[in-house]
Design a protein that fits this description.
CATH class: Alpha Beta
Number of strands: 6
CATH topology: Thiol Ester Dehydrase, Chain A
Helix content: 10-25%
Radius of gyration: 14 Å
CATH superfamily: Hotdog Thioesterase
Number of domains: 1
Order of helices and strands: EEHEEEE
Length: 135
């Protein structure tokens, strides 16, 4: 699977939570990865990544999935997010899958799953407001 350059998200280190984009179909889906490291500035003192950052990584991946649908996207809502296994330990590779499921004009609903070393770790829905280009 070819990797893609990271898109122009409005995030910068250390809050850009995607290391690599593995697949993207604009307006349909995105798959990204992130390697959790013990020296991550966002990790807790024991080196684990808290679940709230999994939600943010999912939202960033959703932003990649909706690229091409407008000039930018803003997180409007997070629904039904559940992290089943708690914090993510250092050394784990995350795969973040985001799929567009519904478009309501400038509002887009995206469902996503976060996998950690092949195990389903978290899932939820992200609602984004997509900025439309000036006509």
């Amino acid at each position: 699977m070819p990797t893609h350059d990271l898109p122009a998200l409005p995030h910068a280190f250390p809050f850009l939570l995607l290391d690599r984009i593995l697949e993207v179909r604009p307006g349909q889906l995105a798959i990204a990865m992130r390697r959790v490291t013990a020296d991550d500035p966002l990790a807790e003192p024991d080196g684990c990544l808290p679940p709230v950052l999994l939600a943010e990584a999912l939202a960033q991946c959703a932003g990649v999935a909706v690229r091409g649908m407008g000039t930018g996207a803003v997180l409007a809502r997070l629904d039904r997010f559940r992290s089943r296994c708690g914090r993510v330990p250092a050394g784990v590779e995350l795969r973040i899958h985001a799929r567009v499921v519904r478009v309501f004009g400038a509002v887009v609903k995206v469902r996503g799953v976060v996998w950690a070393d092949g195990q389903r770790w978290a899932a939820g829905e992200v609602v984004l407001r997509v900025d439309q280009p000036n006509e």
